[in-house]
Amino acid sequence: MDMLTNLLETPYAFLRDYGGPFVLVISVLVFVHEWGHYIIARWCGVKIEKFSIGFGPEIFGWTDRHGTRWKFSWIPLGGYVQMFGDSDPASSHHDDEVYDENGNVRKMTKAEKKVAFYTQDLWKRSAIVFAGPAINYIFAIILLTGLFMFHGQPYTPPIAATLVEGAPAELAGVQPDDKIIALNGEKMQRFEDLVRVTSVNLDTPMDVTLLRSNGDGTWDEDAPITLKITPTVYEVEDNFGFRHEIGRIGIFSPTGQSGLEKHNVFTAFGASIYESWRLTALTLKGVWQMISGTRNAEELGGILRMGAYAGEFAQAGIVSFITFAALLSINLGLINLFPIPLLDGGHLVFYIFEAIKGKPLSAKVQEYALRTGLVMVLGIMLFATWNDLSQLKFFEYIGSFLSS
Of 79, 165, 304, 404, which has the fewest beta carbons less than 10 angstroms from its beta carbon? Predict the structure, then answer.
């Protein structure tokens, strides 16, 4: 599939197949994230002035009985909750001045200060900020729990059915039908787990613990073997032309043994928590690899890449789309916890310093930090978009078009 050709030749079809699913999933996840801030703020007695899905001019909205303006805005790439006393939606500036009904500036009353965000106790402000990322995780766990209960969790036994000749696994001493039970001490319950963990280990030696096959469908449970295996790094290209580096050790799963494992509510809940934790750990590892130079930073994707994957998962069916929404929700929650000023994690860092010092950081320090955070966030977004356009060969297309 040539995504760029689809975009340039049939923009309506592109928006329908990719833009629509992306806007839908990102709007839902942004609502969930901002609702986390909103509901905890309400519980803490803070007045909410605006709840917006999207940025920019309002498309439509309504005002509820509490005075909160709920609205949808033109740029569907985020959203915000603006609390009373904040002079901007990011809660980066606080002010004890408000406008009266005639548009004149006046000082807040004591009653108004009680419902302003910046006057709340430190633990309340921290809880309000943390609630956004936290509810993204909760939402993902709910989605995965439902999928594992009603649809089932993909399951393939972690057995090395066949080996690639000369690949790391064979060279290290793995034999056909050996059962992989752990990687670096982490239990492997499914072949899918093994693939995921191996894929992010780029040229990094792993301790692979296995049970030797007895040749009759059983394994020597009393004598586990641990081998040192270093995955080989491959660059793969997906359907859209986006490139990824993955690690492989050269084993294939048993054919005909893949299926769906149905769970009850308790095992589904446990499996969903485990999946959320594992995805978080693997994502953090991938980010660190980009920072340290182990992984190519060109793999950092932006809006175009997310839109492409949203469309692909939507076309694959409702189960795939819900799975994608759960995974994206985890990533949204995790990214917002990064200690970058302007993100929720950055605000939490401010509150940690406030707890240590016994008073907030100076307005000047916070302002410079937030400006730095804005530059960082915009820089990452631009870099990710550049990566997307480069791998879609957009610049090559423009060059050939201009030279023709």
Answer: 404
Q: Give the model confidence (pLDDT) of 1-13 as tens digits.
A: 455 555 555 555 5
CATH topology of domain 154-261: Pdz3 Domain (2.30.42)
Q: What is the pTM of this model?
A: 0.88
d(CA 61, CA 73): 9
Residue 163 near residue 353 (C-beta atoms within 8 A)? no
Which residue type occupies 239? N
Q: How far is CA 404 from the centre of its chain?
A: 41
| Residue 144 to residue 167: CA distance in whole angstroms | 35
381 or 140: which carries more pLDDT confidence? 140
> What is the set of active-site residues?
34
Q: Which residue, 193, 230, 239, is CA-closest to 391? A: 239
Cα–Cα distance measured from residue 159 to residue 284, given in angstroms and rounded to the nearest whole number = 27
Total number of residues shown for the chain: 404
The amino acid occupying position 329 is: S
Residue 252's closest CA among 313, 161, 356?
A: 161
Cα 90 to the center of its chain, rounded Å: 20
- Cα of first residue to Cα of last residue in the chain, in angstroms, is 24
315 in Cβ contact with 321 (< 8 Å): no
Pairing type for strands 225-229 and 206-211 reads: antiparallel
